[in-house]
Amino acid sequence: MTAPGRRSSTFTRLLRHGFTDPSAAERLLDAVELAAVRDDPVLLEALGATADPDLALHGLVRLLEAQPDPTARRELLDTLIAAKPLRDRLLGVLGASEALADHLARHVGDWRALVTYEPRDLHRGVEDFERGLAEADDPVSLRVAYRRCLLSIAARDVCGTIDVAETAAELADLATATLRAALALAEAAAPEDAALCRLAVIAMGKCGGHELNYVSDVDVIFVGEAVEGADEPRALRAATALASHLMRICSETTVEGSIWPVDANLRPEGRNGPLVRTLSSHLAYYQRWAKTWEFQALLKARPVAGDPGLGAEYVAALQPLVWQAADRENFVPDVQKMRRRVVENIPAAEVDRQLKLGPGGLRDVEFAVQLLQLVHGRADTSLHSGTTLDALEALAAGGYVGRADAAQLDEAYRFLRSMEHRIQLHRLRRTHLVPEDEADLRRLGRSLGLRTDPVAGLLRAWKRHASVVRRLHEKLFYRPLLDAVAQLAPGEARLSAEAARERMVALGYADPAAALRHLEALASGVTRKAAIQRTLLPVLLGWFADSADPDAGLLNFRKVSDALGKTPWYLRLLRDEGAAAENLARVLSAGRLAPDLLMRAPEAVALLGDGNAGGLAPRGRAQLEQETLAAVRRADGAVQAVAAVRGVRRRELFRTAAADIVGSYGTEAQPVEADQGALVDRVGAAVSDLTAATLAGTLRAVVREGWGDTLPTRFAIIGMGRFGGHELGYGSDADVLFVHEPRDGADEREAADAANKVVSEMRRLLQVPSADPPLLIDADLRPEGKSGPLVRTLKSYEAYYRRWSLVWERHALLRAEFVAGDEDLGRRFIELVDPLRYPAGGLDDDAVREIRRLKARMESERLPRGADPKLHAKLGPGGLSDVEWTVQLMQLRHGHEEAGLRTTRTRAALAAACEAGLISTENATTLDEAWVLATRVRNAVMLVRGRAGDTFPTDPRELAAVGRYLGHGPGHAGDMLDEYRRTARRARAVVDELFYA
User: Fold this and answer.
1) What is the pTM of this model?
2) How many helices (H) and strands (E) does the chain have?
3) Packing angle of the helix pair 22-29, 53-66 (nearest 10 deg)
4) Is 665 in contact with 586 (CB distance < 8 Å)?
5) Where does residue 189 rank: exposed (0-12), middle (13-18), buried (19+ CB within 10 A)?
C-alpha cells in the first residue's frame, strides 16, 4: 500500500510515459477488462509511444468493454500483447483519433483488419479498396466499410509505414472506390435510368490530384451522354437522377454518420448550371465562357467512376484548353485577382491559425505551383501533373523553380499537410485551423514525433515552415528569371529566354523584353552590388507585379538604382530595413508623380526607411518654416534661396505622396489605412502646411534681396479656397489674397510699389523652370477679381467690403486664413472679414437665392465639354462643389450663432453642423463619405498621371492604378466607378434636400 502523500510507482511510470492524467489512467488500468495485462510493461511502453496515451488507454478500455464476451476480450488482449504490428497500429489509431475509436467500439470486430498485412497491403490501391467495399449493399453498410478501409490507412499513417503523400494518394483512391460503389448502388436502384445513359464522374480538386485529406469535400464534375438510340434530353434527366443519388449516398447523414460531401460546384456555371452536361456542352462552355480559375481547376481533372471511355474523352477534349489559358486576354488580371483572393475571406480571428488559406499556408504552395504549370505547361508536357508535389518536382527538374527552393517548399508542404491530416483525423471533422487548446496541441505535436516539449516544438516548426512558404512564394516566380538573365549557378537548369518572357507576361509585364533587360542590368555580374540586387529583386518583382503597372515599377527601380548604385547606404537600406524595400516598390509602381519627384533627388529614398531619416510621418508647419527660413539665410541671393525652398517642397511632397501610397496600398508592416477620411486629412494638412512654409521662405528671400531685413510695408498672405481650408491636393494652386499696411512714416506709394514687387517676384521665382515642381499662386479671389489690384492695404479691403462686397466674395471668405508674413496684420484681416462671413442674423432670402443661382450657373458653364457629369469629382452631382457649397451655406446662415461652424475646414464644419442639429447624422455621414471619396479620386488621378484632373482616366492601366489606390483589386475598375456613382448619387439627394430646398 502506498503511504499517504506519496505517489505510487505506477503513477510515476505513467507520468514518465507521457500520460497527462495519471490518476485517471491508474483507474482505467485497474479496470477488470485489463486485469490480465495491467502489469505488462509492453502495454505501457506501447501506450507511451502514442500521440495521446490517455486517449489511447481510454479507447482501448472502451473497445474491450464493447467485446461481446470474455473469449473475444481475451483474444483481443492476447493478440495485442503478442503481436507488435497490431499493438502499434491499434494503439496508434486510438491515441490519434476519437472518431475511429468510436467506430471500433461500435464495430467490435474491425480491429482484426489491423492484425496482419501482406506486402501488397503496405501501399493499397483502388482495386484493394474496391474489394474492401464490395459487400456494401446500402448507404449504411457503405459507410461502415468505408470507415474500415479508412482505419487501415490511418493505422499505417500514424505508424509511419506510409508518408503524407502516400496517405493522401490512398485517401484519394479510397474516395475513387467509394464513388464507384455509390454509383453502383444508384444504378441498382434505378436500372432503367442506367440503361438510358453513359455517365462519367470526373474527380477535381484534391481528389482529382491524388492528394485528398482525411475529411474533405470531394469535388466532382459529371459528364453524360445518351446511349445509342436514346433521346438525349431524357438520357440527361436519367444521368442527373443517378448523379444526384450518388451525391446523396455519400453526403447524407445516417446512423453511421456520413462519408463526405460530394461537391459539384466546380462545374460550368457553378451551382446555377445543370448538374450533368454532355461533353459538347462542356467543351462549348470552356471555349467561350470559362474564367482562368476554371482552367486552373481543370489541372486536377481525372476520370474516376462511371463510363471510362466517356471520362477519357472528357479529359482528352479539355486538357488542351488548360494549356492555352495563359494566352487568354484576361489571364494576368485573373491571376492577380486569384492571388489576392487567397486570404480575402478569412475571418480576422482565424488568419493566424489557418493552415490552408493563411499567409504561408498550403494554398500559397498550391497556387504558386499551379500558376507556374499554367504558364509553362503548354510547351513542357512534363508539367502536366495534378499532384502538387509531383508538379513541384517537375518544375525543379525543368529549371522553372530553383532546386533548393523546391526542396525547401516540398519539406514545408509535407509538414503542413501532416499537421492538417492529424488535426482532421482526431474527430474526422473538416477543419484547417490549428487548435488553441494545449491538450490538442500536445497531441498534435506528439503525433508528428515531437516528444520533448511538443507544444513549443510544434509551434516553432509550424511558424518556421510557414515562414519558408511565405518567403519562397514570391521567390519561386522570380528567382529563375534572375538566373535566366544573370547566367548564374553553372550546371543547373535554367529558364529559357522564351520561358522567362512567358513568365513575365503572366505576371503582368506588358513589355517582357524590356523588363528582362532591366533585370539583366541590375543583377548580372559578380560585384557585391549585383549580389544584393539578386537578393532583393525576387521580392521586389512580386510587389511590382502586385501593382497596376509592373513595367513602370521595374523601370523606375532601375533608374533609382542607377542614380544611387554607388552610394554605400542605398542597397544596405533596402536590404536591412524591413519597410524600405516594400515602401519603395509600392511608390515606384503606383503612378508617375511620386517617382518623378524621387528621380529629381533620388536621395529622398532614405525617407522610406524606418530608421532615423524622418520616415514618412508628415512634418508640421513650424518645423517646415524653420527649415525653409534657415535655407534662405544660407543662400546667396533670392534665386538660390527660392531654389532651396523649392527643393524642400519637392522632398516633402514626395514624403507626403509616399506616405499616402503606402497607407492606401498597405504593406506587410502597415495594413491599409481603414479610415479613408484620416488619409485625406493628412494629405490636405501636409500639402497646405508645406505650401505655407514655401510661401514664407520665398517671401523672406524676396524681401531680403530687395529691401534687407525690413520691407517699407507690413505684408501678409491670406490663404483662400482649399489652401485656407487645409485641403490642398497634390496638383492644387495656392489661392491667396495679399494684404499690406505701410509702416509708420513710409510713403504710401512706395509701400504699394514694394508690395506689388514682392508679389511679382514671388510668383516669378516659384515658377522658374527647374527640376522642382512649380507652385502657382492664384489671387483671382481678390476684390473685383482679375480686374482688381493684386495687393490692397487693409484699409482698402475694409472700404471695399463695407461698400461693394458681393455675395460670392463673402462666400469665398469662409476659407480665409492667415498663412504667411506679418502675423499681426494677418490677424487683423481675419477680424475684419469675420462679420462678413458669419453675418449676424445669417443671410437674407435674396442672398440665399443668389448663392443658389451662382451654384447652378457654375454647374452648367464650368463643366468641361464632353465630361461625364456623374464621374466629375469636383463639379458633378454629389461631388466636391455640391458638398462644400451645402456646408458653406450652413456656415453663412448659422456661423454667427454656432461657434463650431467658424472653421475653414469642410469636414470640421460638417461635423459641427451635425452637432448643432442643422443636419441629421445620416445626411452628414453621406456628405462626408462623398467628399472624402471625391478628394481621394482627385489625389489618385494626380498620383497616377502626374497632372491634376477631376475625372477618372480613360486609359485602362491608369484607371486600374486609380482603382488600386482606392482599394479595388485588378479587374474591379467597373466596381470602383459604380461605387463612386452610388456615393455621389446619395450625396446629391442630400444636397437637393438641404441646399436647393
Assistant:
1) 0.71
2) 43, 10
3) 20
4) yes
5) middle
